Amino acid sequence: MFDRQYRVYSHLLLVADLAVGVPALFLAYFLRSHADELIPFGAAGLFNPELLPFRQYLLYFLALLPLWVLLLLITQRYSELVYLPLRQQLIRASHFALAGCVITSFFTFSLKLVVSRPILFGFVVICSSFVALNRVLIQWVLRSRNINEHNQIKIVVVGTDSRSTRVGEVLENSQKYGYYVVGHVSCGAESVADSSLNVLGSLRDLPRLLLDEVVVDEIIFVEEQGCRQENIEELMSLCEDLGIKTRLALDGFPKAGAKPSLEFLEGLPLITYSTVPDHSLSLVAKRLLDCSAAACLLVLTTPIMLVVMLLIKFTSPGSIFYHQIRCGLYGRRFTLTKFRTMIEGAEDKLWEIKHLNEMDGPVFKMRNDPRVTPLGRILRKFSIDELPQLANVLKGEMSLVGPRAPLPEEVKYYSLKQRRRLSVKPGITCLWQVSGRNEIDFQRWMDLDLRYIDQWSLGLDLVILLKTIPAVLKGRGAS
After folding, report:
1. Are strands 245-248 and 218-221 parallel, antiparallel or unpaired?
2. pLDDT of residue 37
3. Cα–Cα distance between 254 and 7 in angstroms, integer?
4. Would 79 be classed as within a structural domain?
5. SS3 64
6. Residues of the chain with pLDDT under 50
7. Of 352, 457, 363, 371, the residue nearest 405 (C-alpha)
8. Is the residue at 186 inside a domain?
9. Cα angle, residue 309 at apex, residues 308 and 313 outer, rounded to 5°
10. Structural domain that includes position 124
11. Are 138 and 90 in contact (CB under 8 A)?
């Protein structure tokens, strides 16, 4: 795992471990205060009937919080924790439980604090259980990148000598974290160190591979030998236009407009250039927001969707849902699902009205499209037809906020600069959605998407989500 990503997950673990303190204390207090109801045969009578208010225990906890943080840092050693097998992580959680019992007992005895011992030890046990649960959850988050290809990080390694082979092996060993080596690209003159390498081609083939043939999230340039410096700079410029992250393990530092940063891959220093959002912690929060909000919205809108399904079924012949292949992150193909708003076989009739297109560029938009059913016009006006896309969000193919998912035929006509909009996951709503939709010309549309990528933040996503509500209710720009 790259060290920056590792640091993000380590910090997440520390924050999660600290966050369980107050809930664990509350749960321990709740169990003790209801001991008479929970413990049979009157065994609860063995406890001291005097019970201080919860705020008193909370005050003790906050006073000892610095010590609690220090205890976590000493027993868990977050600098290496995520790399350990889950079994060893759980063992460290048990060390925290034992140390917590010893420390809290020592301080309550030496300071002569009037506290309930069942609450005290119940708090340590519950808190340690939550810490262990955090270990299980973080392992699930890390390994969830392998659920499908939309969550994987696809990497091409430039170089085929022994050093490049070593980088590929390290990444292959990190597949459990979602890293997937698409293949190697030869610099031309160097010999192939391992005949089993999947060599995609040479450097001169790389532009064609990136534009037409393979899905790539990152490129690692490992070897400079056999490659001219200006060729590397030209390829990095191409990657910058496409929004592909590049990493360098070179003696020289080619000039590039993208922001550079230093990272390490198991001791190998890499200079990383990226023009896409690299706020790792915010991106994790974005994914959590996507999953939780999409799940809630699916539950809340189920009655609406059931009614829509019945209306579609009884108002026009054909299937209820419409499935279409779209391009996702870096060109990944996925099946987008919507409620059907057109007559059956509408795609076969597109050539009859294509000359009536009201949108410039490769996108077809028509205000009064004769293929749209009467019910479909209502569904489109208020974006109800897009509700099934929440399932695409849960699968990791889309996000709640991001550029509209284009058709593969549309991407073929994108300029080089416009292809950078594929460097983030497509979304259900975006700046285009809240800025007038079909009232905006194609070039302005592309500019809005690129501006979203350049200025992305979690706050911007929240603003767009809030603006989407009145935009949908007004139905502005829909067709």
Report:
1. parallel
2. 63
3. 27
4. yes
5. coil
6. 41-46, 191, 252-253
7. 363
8. yes
9. 115
10. 3-145
11. no
Q: What is the pLDDT of residue 252?
A: 47
Angle at 46 between CA 42 and CA 48, to 5 degrees: 125
Specify whether 381 is located in the same domain as 436: yes
- Residue 479 in any domain: the answer is no
Structure tokens at 239: 């990657």
179 shares a domain with 114: no
Bridge partners of 333, per DSSP, are: 327
User: For residue 247, what are the β-bridge partners?
Assistant: 220, 272
Q: Distance between CA atoms of 388 and 396, rounded to whole angstroms?
A: 14
SS3 158: strand
Domains held by the chain: number: 3
Full-model pTM? 0.68
**Spatial CA neighbour of 81 closest among 45, 147, 134:** 134
Both structure tokens of 39: 């413990």
The pLDDT score that the predictor gives to residue 143 is 74
Residue 449 vs residues 96, 142, 212, 287: alpha-carbon distances, Å = 47, 29, 22, 19
How far is Cα 158 from Cα 84, in angstroms, rounded to an integer? 30
Q: Are residues 293 and 439 in the same domain?
A: yes
Phi, psi (deg, nearest 5) at residue 414: -70, 145
- The answer to whether residues 311 and 414 belong to one domain is yes
Q: Which of 240, 275, 310 is the last residue of a domain?
A: 275
pLDDT of residue 41: 45
Residue 421 lies in a domain: yes
Tokens representing 17 are: 């471990």
* Residue 78 token pair: 């977050």
CA 457 vs CA 276, 281, 461: distances in Å: 11, 11, 7
Residue 317 neighbours by CB under 8 Å, 6+ apart: 344
Say how far apart CA 159 and CA 171 lie, in whole Å. 14
Query: 355: burial class by Cβ within 10 Å (0-12, 13-18, 19+)?
Result: exposed
Q: Are residues 112 and 185 in the same domain?
A: no
Going by C-beta distance under 8 Å and a sequence separation of 6 or more, which residues neighbour residue 60? 113, 115
Amino acid at 198: N
Q: How much is the pLDDT for 44?
A: 45
Q: Are residues 129 and 98 in the same domain?
A: yes
Largest CA distance in the chain: 87
What number of other Cβ atoms are within 10 A of residue 418's Cβ? 22
Strands 245-248 and 268-274 come out as antiparallel
Name the token pair of 136: 């299980």
Residue 126 and residue 31 share a domain: yes
Please give the structure tokens belonging to residue 194: 């391992």
Cα 427 to Cα 294: distance, rounded to the nearest angstrom: 12
Which of 275, 297, 315 terminates a domain? The answer is 275
Nearest alpha-carbon partner for 115 in 21, 20, 28: 28
